[in-house]
Amino acid sequence: MSDWIRVCDTGELLPGEKTVAWDGDTPILVVNLDGEYYALEDQCSHEDYELSAGEVDPGAATIECTLHGAKFDLRDGRALCAPAHAPVAKFPVKVEDGAVWTRDDR
Predict the structure, then answer these.
(1) How far apart, in whole angstroms, are the C-alpha atoms of residue 15 and residue 83?
(2) pLDDT by residue (tens digit) across 15-31?
(3) Per-chain mean pLDDT for the chain
(4) pLDDT higher than 60, residue 71
(5) Which residues lie across from 32 on neighbouring strands?
(6) CA 96 → CA 2, 4, 6, 38, distances in Å?
(7) What is the pLDDT of residue 11?
(8) Nearest alpha-carbon partner for 105 in 93, 70, 55
(9) Helices (H) and strands (E) in the chain, counts
(10) DSSP string, 48-63
(11) C-alpha dist (Å) from residue 50 to 1, 17, 47
C-alpha cells in the first residue's frame, strides 16, 4: 500500500477548487467542497480523459467530464449519467498539520 502524499496546504485549495496530485503513475483529483476534501482518480471511467479538466458543481458535489459530459459524484465516485456507467476510484483524504494528504490505497 502506498504512503500518504502531500497535496497542498489547506489554504491553497479554496472551497470549490480542485487540484491534481500524483501517487506514482496515478493522477488523483482532489476537490475542496466547503472544507471537506474528496479525492478521485483523475480519469473518466467512460474514456481515458482527465476529470480535472471538467467543471465542479459544489452545490451538487459533482464534476463533469468535458469530453462527453459524464458526471460523477465527488463524494463517492459514482457515475451519475451516461455515457459513463462505472464509478471512478475514490481515495482516502486526511488533513494533518495544515496540509491535505491522499494516497492510492488500491
Answers:
(1) 28
(2) 999 999 999 999 999 99
(3) 96
(4) yes
(5) 37
(6) 17, 11, 10, 15
(7) 96
(8) 93
(9) 0, 10
(10) S--GGGSEEETTTTEE
(11) 24, 16, 9
Cell of 22: 500524483
Phi, psi at residue 12, to the nearest 5°? -90, -10
Residue reference for cell 496530485: 21
Residue with cell 497542498: 8
Task: Give residue 30's identity as a one-letter amino acid code.
Answer: V
The yes-or-no verdict on residue 2 having pLDDT over 80 is: no
Report whether pLDDT(1) > 60: no
Q: Spell out the CATH class of 5-94.
A: mainly beta
Q: Which three cell numbers stand for residue 76?
A: 463517492
Residues 77 and 62: their CA atoms lie apart, in Å, by 9
Q: What percentage of the chain has pLDDT greater than the value 90? A: 97
Say which amino acid occupies 69.
G
